[in-house]
Protein 1
Amino acid sequence: MLPLTGIRVVEFSHMVMGPTCGMILADLGAEVIKIEPPGGDRTRNLQASGAGFFAALSRNKRSYVADVEADRDALLTLIDSADVVLENFRPGALAEKGLGFDVLRARNPRLVCLSLKGFLPGPYENRTALDEVVQMMAGLAYMTGPPGRPLRAGAPVNDMMGGMFGVIAVLAALRERDATGQGQVVQSGLFETCAFLVSTSMTQYAVSGREPTPMPAGRRAWGVYDVFTAADDVQVFVAVVTDRQWEIFTRALAAPELAVPEFASNNLRSAARETLIPMVQAILGRLPVAEIEALCDQGGLPYARINRPWDLIEDPHLNAGGMITVTLPDGRRARVPALPILMGERRLGLRHDLPAVGEYNQGETP
């Protein structure tokens, strides 16, 4: 038994936001039936930066191929048996095909309907959105890139987090249904997700009265919070965020030039970063990365080698229980991260491999 065992979800989605939402619900135990157009979802065949979308976000789902117009009656019958319908198409797209939420809920009042949109209701609601669009609009790109060079984050953070907020909305609506017997329509917005992500910068401005500086050029709240290059040319991030950690750090480095009154408190170190960081780099630059990592481990200091995403495929910690192996269409196997949650002592794993196009179209409708 899994938390959502017995919940049936019909997923009309594409790209990242909707599939992320459906996958999380599926991992939690829901029966998720992904409706694909004839020939299959186009993300199955994307190249370049989209090549991993389907493989990363389609496990534990069932694939049912249907033409939304021609097969409308079959889809209505399927949705009559569902607890949740989710979609992430343009506003009004399903309604134009006779599958609007008013129609679905009139037939099935217990149905929870989720729209994953670019924008929640308001002046922007009919604009076309992408993850990159809302990163620019909400200021995330401004805070990520160097001054004058806005830069989108290196992952579809709003698409994936928007899908996560969609899950939260669905779970809350199902909980309300337990009390009222009625479903409802809920929404998650891409732009609003990004605004939520930058809310600490918004409140920083409100508290300080000063505009926060983009992260690459910003004044850090901590004296040492940087990427350094070790003697063997490996980059490593090291953070020293408390005065106690500073004592441990300077003692472990045997660096009396750091243990001076000018660096005695975090605020002093933060104000003296232009002097301090080159000094720390000079010291760490004489040590191999393994020695720096051991020093930080022993002292309980935050550190991280600068990895690339594909380095995580062989990460020993993730492979100790946090990875799921799926079968790609060509038969090769690929490891992807499991949901980053623990249910008691169990991680949520693989129940169904990536579905072939329409593999559940055989026989009766699921």
Protein 2
Amino acid sequence: MELLSKLNSPFLYVLCGGIILFVAVICIVFAVRAYQAGKALGIDVSRMKRVITASATFAVLPSVGILLGVIALSGSLGTPWPWLRLSVIGALHYETQVAEAAAESVGIGGLSLSGMTSEAFATIALLMSFCIMWGMVLVIFNGKAYSRRLSAPKQTQKTGKDGKKKTGLAGFGDDAMTAMFIGLVSAYIASYIGQIISGNGLFKFSGSWLPLAVALVSALAMYVFIKLKEKWNAEWLDSFSVAGSMLIAMTCAIFLGKLA
């Protein structure tokens, strides 16, 4: 508890809160400038207001997923650090997975306050920061080229040295990210299956069946969201699917945890 009180100290709240406030001010400045630019371009003011209202509305539920991530991490890492990570540059799926991997690498067996030490927290915080900072660094050198690549069609044609037209993929980055996260999820699921096979027992909470059951529920919930989106042609459901799946899976974990 002494370590957790340090991780929730007023100093860390002021430090992390100051950074978040700075970023929030920048967002407001850009929003005001974008609104003024829209008026200068002759865009209808009422239409811009509808866009602002719709964007704010659709941002509410996805932000619930971020809040859940902060709550989940705050039990072992304190509140200020997860609040900073998930408010400024972090992503929910990234922060939780990297923090868990870092905790296991320092030998505390996952994110738990009981095994957390000052050295372990420093390692986890450093790894979470180091692994995600490269986007900010690399954009300095290849931001313009990447922007042009994003505006290009998915399939591009170019003429080779032999004079023949060749088709290439312009959106390799999206496919690479998808493949990476499929690999991460597969590794986690395989680890739980491995614990069952190794003899920890199917009906032990620490063994594995509960995480596997929750993962299955989450996958089914996401499948339902995708089918509803396709059936109703509701693109806006993309903004709710991740948070909705998380809420459903966490509710399921609570009820299944009582049975474990």
Protein 3
Amino acid sequence: MSYAPEQFQEMSDQLHKVKKEIGTFIVGQEEAIEFSLYAILAEGHALLEGLPGLGKTMLIRTISEVLDLSFSRIQFTPDLMPADITGTSMLERNNSGTQRFVFKEGPIFSQMVLADEINRATPKTQSALLEAMGEKTVTVLGETRQMMKPFFVLATQNPIEMEGTYPLPEAQMDRFLCKILLPYPSRDELKEIVQRTTGTAHIAIQKIMNANEVVEAQKMTRAVIVAEEILDFAVQLVANTHHHEESSTEWTKYVQYGSGPRGLQSIIRLAKARALMDGRFHVSIADIKHVAQPALRHRILLNYEGEAEGINVNALIEKLLNESRKGAFAN
């Protein structure tokens, strides 16, 4: 399906209204709001890492209200079972006395799902969520059920508590479109948070879009054009994350494992979402550079030398961006 340029601008205006409305309730956290919206537009899921009490739950709840989408929150604990997420079939007796199995949906059957502290659940339970994320389906007792549209999962993990946790393996983290880091609020933001949350004033959230409009925005995101030279730049960047590549740079000596194809897909999908937010129907180099860190930071595993040198993954990606631009546009 093709869209006129003015349709992209109209959708951009609508999405900026959504972002502004979220900002009336959520203080600061620009990157978290921005990339959560990008992930929704790109039909992906986000991993949010930050200290407790920084508003992760309120962020996703506010987004769901502004977009008029159903919301559920799953608190992950070591004793949580897969059926607690997906639901299960229960034996029920009707008025005539006959019995039949009735499927009771779990909290995963919502349009927006907050998987709080996902690394506290066992790998078996984590996998139940990741199947729904990857396939957009849930299979229970041999019967496959489709997820609602749109479907978005925001998983959170605490970076300071490791006891009693089951860290997500790299292969499972790769399924997240992006990893968003939640910084500690500034002094002014702390003051604003207290004023908004401890007073008598009530902030009413306005619904700006609905589910059908979000699905249409997702279709428009897919329709955004990526020029071949822009794609070459993104390919060069992902290739440079592997130290065995001929085009690799001196910085990749600190990398044990680089990004796979999902990393490239994530960069392009997030870049398309950013272009749509800006009212453009084409991806720019600036889009690629802007989304590179959230798209790749959980897909690059440093080796022992990199850990010993204290290499920062975000800084490494920035170095690779500069080298990739030189390589992609060498001719």
Protein 4
Amino acid sequence: MEDTIDIRAISEKIEKESAFIDLLTFEMNKVIVGQKHMVERLLIGLLGKGHILLEGVPGLAKTLAINTLSKAVQGSFSRIQFTPDLLPADVVGTLIYNMKENDFSIKKGPIFANFVLADEINRAPAKVQSALLEAMQEKQVTIGDETFILDKPFLVMATQNPVEQEGTYPLPEAQVDRFMLKTVIDYPKMDEEQLIMRANLNGGFDRVNPVVSVDQIIKAQEAVKEVYMDEKIEKYILDIIFATRYPEKYKLEELKPLISFGASPRGSINLGNAARCYAFIKRRGYVIPEDVRAVVHDVLRHRIGITYEAEAENITSEEIINKIVNEIEVP
């Protein structure tokens, strides 16, 4: 029965709860020129308690974006530069022997912050990557025999340079799957770059003010769960996910030889979650198909494996997603 769910009441509540989004976006836009897509994705990750993998060449304001977000939300920020000689202890922390006390004390690593930037994650070896990913998944860290719960909200934004560059350790599929979104960012447009150049040459941007408290974010994360998602939308999401696994069942036989593996159940969970967060950012109390379509590339881009055949034909997971989204019936 549709009547039992009061969409209007939910919408009014979400409208009220999401009022801070405009303030937050305004503060970020003081410093981040253009890159609207990236800013929106950061907010989706923050509201959906997910993490973000950003791919793009150096110099596209990736570090600046998450740093600005941590200033606009009164949260703590830390940055870890991943290098080939980094050790897991450099990320999570370690036990240090104290000679005076004749005992070990715990030194916490940079992972203990609300906003963690893992810069160039694919430059560090697998054991460091897995230490970070374990913290992301479990939201806790064990040092010695003590376990610490990480601060809330906890958002990891990892950046990676496009893999063609040498000296990189590509992230294994199972680990990439832990990221809620993978966002590819491109160069700014010419007029945007003119503004960036001008502001930098004239001594920088406006100061970012803290406009949202950490508690407000935690409250908003709970409010997102109340965004109404109709069964038809759930079915739409599942159709998209299942089409990545069994394309032949959706009249997409030509995709069968191009996909080596489809999206995991994390894909459907994150697609539903991201669509809800997107509706929340748009200050709406219910999910519409456009919300799903708006986030589908970022959620599935890193969850579809492509075969050698697809690589030989220069077909990317992007194009596969486009074909699926265009084929599947919109509710």
